[in-house]
Amino acid sequence: MAPLAAVLATTHHPFYYAATTAPVEKQIPQAAEWKRKVEAYRETLTQARPDILVMVGADHFHQFFLDNYPAFLIGKAPRYDATFYNEEREFGIPKYILEGHEELSRYMHSRLMDKGFDFSSSYELKIDHSIICPIITTRPKADLPIVPIYTNIFVPPLPSPARFWQLGRAIREIIDEFPSDKRIAAVGSGHLSLELGGPRQFGESGPDPEFDLKAIEWLSSGNIEAILENVTLESMARCGNATHGFMDLILMMGIAGPIKADYVDDLDLYHTREAYLTWYPHGATA
Amino acid sequence: MSKYYVNKFMYTVDRDPALLQRYKEDARSFVTHWEQNIGPKLNDVEFTSVNSFTPRERDALINHDYVALFEMGAHFFLSLTLFVALYGEEWAEKSGPLSFQHEFAAKLNHWLGRDYPTVAL
To answer: What average pLDDT does the structure give for chain A?
Structure first.
């Protein structure tokens, strides 16, 4: 009966760290506003006083490749190194070591299997920027044990949006059932519309600003019906070839439930729009 | 055609600074080296013999031809990160931040409004 302290669904923009730590004269014009918004968002996690973080992301071909790419995977290690050589090279993201929470990892894996989610697992997992970016933005001290969960948003055929929602619902039940008084927060990162390696990449905004605004509205109102009516694997591809990362935000809403978000913010940036949502399913002060 | 093998090339090279350097300096001889020594490796001991490049794939890799690779359905993430590693910095110094990423996009402009070649294998 672990208390679910907060659920955070955030985009991850791997350039945030470099953009906000560069000398001021080299920063992009939105850097100060970006930093302000991120620090305000961080406060939504801090005030939930979490003891453990369940982190949701997706490996960007750092540890996993097409010879063996899991649909869903859970880390079960006592510790996790983070940040690969090519992420340091491209984004300037520092290295981290995060503590794991083996007990919750074991419990989560076993209960997910019971509920029909046949997860892969890893006892030697190195974390990539899909998890380290939200650590940098929401918990830069990196001082809490994590349970990392990876999803496949890259290698077709992908699980469906409905499956991501159902997985979120299952994770919620498991957190609620976990026999502990530790406060658990779930923090997951994904994308709104996004293009990588295609003609709409690195534009002045995301590739589909109209989708982005609708997506934020659906998430902030807990409107899973509208998402499942409007969002398919094909429709996401039309919004930008890497838009499928939106499904990790659907998963996070699944952990919260079909309820209004308690905190919603966004920022229109080059390349992609940022979105920051937080739910307190048991109330902000519970 | 072996999209898998093209992706394996990009995956193995992007993650290794020494291989990246060789691919940048002499793509033709490096691609041959890769096909003989790296592509077939399953691990340090085991090899597989089932994959090979088509001539078009080999040419696209030798020519750093990210447009052809996109059109063959090579994975967009691997292609972006690999070619940014090869060209991002020198373009940024010459033409400003993200100029190579913009050039990459512009060269694929003829795909706007169309369904892209699938990356599915």
So the answer is: 96
Residue A283, chain B, CB below 8 Å: the answer is no
pLDDT, tens only, A78-129:
999 999 999 999 999 999 999 999 999 999 999 999 999 999 999 999 999 9
State whether residue A94 sits within 8 Å of chain B by CB: no
Q: Is the pLDDT of residue A1 over 80?
A: no
**Residue B57 binned pLDDT confidence (cut-offs 50, 70, 90):** very high
Best probe of the A interface among B2, B15, B84, by most A CBs < 10 A, is B15
Q: Could you say which residues from 226 to 245 on chain A have a Cβ atom under 8 Å away from some Cβ of chain B?
A: 237, 241-242
- Torsion over CA: B36, B42, B48, B52 (sign): negative
- pLDDT tops 60 at residue B116: yes
Choose the closest CB to A86 out of B15, B79, B111: B15
Mean pLDDT of all residues in A258-285: 93
Pick from A238, A237, A218: nearest CA to A228? A218
Encoded tokens for A228:
């499942």
Instruction: Categorize the per-residue pLDDT at A286 as very low, low, confident or very high, splitting at 50, 70 and 90.
Output: low
Residue from B5, B81, B91 to probe the interface with A (highest A Cβ count within 10 Å): B81
- The answer to whether the Cβ–Cβ distance between A196 and B77 falls below 8 Å is yes
* SS3 (DSSP) at A160: coil
Cβ distance A84 to B15 less than 8 Å, yes or no, reads yes
% of chain A exceeding 70 in pLDDT: 99
Q: How many Cβ atoms from other residues are within 10 Å of residue A261's Cβ? A: 22
Q: How far off is chain B from A156, nearest CA to CA, in Å?
A: 5
Pick the residue of B2, B3, B11 with the most A CBs within 10 A to test the interface with A by mutation.
B11
How many whole angstroms from its chain centre is CA B118?
16
Tokens of B116: 């892209």
Mean pLDDT of B79-101: 97
**Higher per-residue pLDDT: A265 or A29:** A265
The separation between CA A251 and the C-alpha centre of its own chain, rounded to angstroms, equals 9
Residues A171-190, mean pLDDT to the nearest whole number: 97
Nearest to B120 by CA among A232, A194, A247, A152: A152
